[in-house]
Design brief:
The chain is mainly alpha-helical. It contains 11 helices and 8 strands. It has 2 domains: 1-102, no CATH class; 153-345, Cytochrome p450, CATH 1.10.630. It has helices spanning 2-9, 13-16, 28-53, 61-71, 78-110, 118-128, 135-166, 168-181, 197-209, 242-245, 286-303, and strands at 219-220, 225-227, 230-232, 237-238, 304-308, 318-320, 324-326, 332-336. The strands form 4 sheets. The protein has a two-stranded antiparallel sheet. A two-stranded antiparallel ribbon has the order 2-3. It has a two-stranded antiparallel ribbon with strand order 5-8. The protein is globular, with a radius of gyration of 25 Å.
Length: 345
């Protein structure tokens, strides 16, 4: 499933330039077909495994289907059983849609556009522009928030920890800052984050070097305009290379080096940061993302001692797709700090 997700996240030229779809540049369609064959093989292995176990009373769907296969083999072939499994997965996604519809209807009945809840704000916009803010669009917003709210912090946290393990002096500086402003008698809380400026600098620098979205989602020019001296006609699809911008030597000193101090006392650099996109299409969860990352990273450093496995530097090679993940998952050694153990009960 991890390979399926990676392939789904890989940019496909045919999506951006439809007239190239028939060429299959990069072999994307070929890879997808080959991968789906492997998915079929995986389902076959699941079926064979359950067949060997042979427990028709387990309540597991595959076991029930195999019991029916023994009675009517011409009807319940392995291909049919594979189809049932896939159908079950699709049904699960439909249940998710039903759940989101119930959330939307519940908030619609309450009708509190001043609550600050995202769904309420979207429903208020739906009243103004119903053709744009349909229930389907609102469901999409909820799904995006859930996905972005889990994958983006996770990937950023993994990159940040990798950078810190390769720069133990920076990790020590964060630990000293937390010990000074929070102490070791309690765990870090959200209210403490505004006092931890160096921790925020580290998060910014991690997002700069390792943006989870190296290529921002496609935009479309709503009118004729000029960008950098180039004429861009209305309707043009625009792609923003955040990774390149955030390593541009014109904008950054020593752009390929991990230097959190570059953000100290600076406010202008935030306009060069594209980790959460910018403008009206910027991520609505930016402030939440920073808080989650601050709490997670800060707590990990406050509560545990960390070190690399072996003497070599942590591998910083990346898998580039729609999101940028580590090519080799991070592995590290940790142990509780002695003065923090009482807090763990």
């Amino acid at each position: 499933m991890e390979e399926v997700l990676k392939l789904m996240h890989t940019p496909y030229v045919g999506d951006f330039l439809p007239f190239f779809a028939w060429i299959d540049i990069g072999g994307h369609q070929k890879k997808m077909i080959a991968l789906m064959k492997r998915v079929d093989v995986f389902f076959d292995e699941v079926i064979e495994n359950r067949r060997r176990i042979g427990n028709s009373e387990s309540g597991i769907m595959v076991d029930k289907l195999l019991a029916l296969q023994e009675q009517e083999p011409e009807l319940y072939t392995d291909q049919i059983i594979r189809g049932f499994i896939m159908k079950k997965m699709i049904a699960l996604m439909k249940r998710v849609d039903v759940f989101f519809d119930e959330v939307i209807e519940n908030r619609r009945r309450i009708g509190n556009s001043e609550s600050g809840i995202m769904v309420d704000k979207l429903l208020a916009l739906q009243e103004q522009e119903p053709e744009l803010y349909t229930d389907q669009i609102i469901r999409g917003f909820i799904m995006i928030m859930l996905i972005a709210g889990t994958e983006t912090p996770y990937l950023t946290l993994e990159w940040a920890m990798s950078l810190l393990l390769n720069h133990p002096n920076v990790m020590k500086k964060i630990k000293n800052e937390i010990d000074t402003h929070v102490g070791t008698h309690r765990l870090l809380q959200e209210d403490d984050l505004e006092k931890l400026s160096y921790l925020q600098n580290v998060i910014n620098e991690s997002l700069r070097l390792c943006p989870t979205l190296p290529m921002l989602l496609p935009r479309e020019a709503s009118q004729d305009t000029k960008i950098g001296g180039y004429f861009v006609p209305s309707g043009t699809m625009l792609l923003v290379n955040a990774w390149a911008i955030q390593r541009d030597p014109v904008l950054w000193d020593k752009p390929d080096e991990f230097i959190p101090e570059r953000f100290e006392g600076r406010s202008d650099d935030k306009y060069k940061m594209l980790g959460f996109s910018v403008g009206r299409r910027g991520c609505p969860g930016t402030s939440l993302g920073y808080r989650v990352l601050g709490l997670a990273l800060g707590t990990l450093i406050q509560a545990f001692e960390w070190e690399k496995i072996g003497d070599e530097q942590v591998d910083m090679n990346a898998f580039y797709g729609l999101s940028m993940a580590k090519l080799t998952p991070l592995q590290a050694l940790c142990k509780p700090r002695p003065n923090m153990i009482p807090l763990f009960g």
